[in-house]
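REVIEWER CHECKLIST
Item 1: Sequence provided? yes
Item 2: Single chain? yes
Item 3: Sequence as submitted:
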Amino acid sequence: MEHRQDASHHARQELRQEPSGDSPPAPPGLLQDPWALAALLAMPLFFSTNLIVGRAVVDLVPPWSLAFWRWLLAVAVLLPLTAGALMRHRELLRREWARILLLGFLGMVLCGGNVYVALGHTTATNATLIYTTSTLMIVVLDALLKRRRLPAIQLVGSLAGFAGIALITVHGEPGRLLGLEFNSGDLGILVAAIAWAAYSLMLRQGPLTRLGGQTAFAANALAGTLLLAPLALWEAASGASTPATLEAWGAIAFLAIFPSVLAFGLFQFAIKAAGAPVTANFLYLMPVYGVLLAVLLLGEELHLYHGVGFVLILGGVILATRRREPLARPAD
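Item 4: Structure as written out by the authors:
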């Protein structure tokens, strides 16, 4: 998953098929890149476990402490794999310290502890609906930054995916939208959605792309952990409980591995392999996985609106991720 040489990284990132005759060859799709497809399908599954486990332990571990210990353990896993690369690029890291801190703040503070805080003040319906707007933000902002018109089919796909999520979150009753009440928790989720869109797009550009996905992720996670530390200390000083049970530490370890190391690692890989808009639209699969996990693990029932929502979501992903240019595979 990591680019080991700068030259190789740039060559792969800018890879394009040149025409050999009068007509250029047809660009490959995701089915021709099984590693990218596998990452895109697994990534939202791992991400979807964050809210489930996070909500389950909200009474056991305070939000900022949960985020801090989650990312501290994640960094402990990442450092042995990336220490050498971080040392080789220490001059680049020193020059780009402000950008790294910003990425850590966006990805681990606003999309980490802030989300756990917000979940204590809002409903799952509101949180899912609001957070999903980050996908639309990514697609639209990517088009604006590149100064290009958003293809109609991509816009339709994005809107279809969002409609599917909205249908699921209001249990197939559109009238429930009129009864939604927004509070400070909703505002916190909205801030996280904006932060996630910015984090996703910042991964694609700038000098830090020379680090490779896994190394850049480790640097961002380390920065985020350092920023979370004073918040966790303040929380503890205010009288909040500290993790003390096997259940609490088990949940923290799960969050460190699955929705952190694995999910973010696959996200970094997918950004490089398929681009931010394609990767963003696959996040529409998160509520699909969430419902299926609830059925399998919690014994909840499927309803007709789930089926309709799934069709809209999957159809939206297919439409919104249709590519007009070849996929660029990262270096192994």
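Item 5: Key structural point noted by reviewer: Confidence is low (pLDDT under 50) at residues 1-28, 325-332.
Item 6: Recommendation: ____
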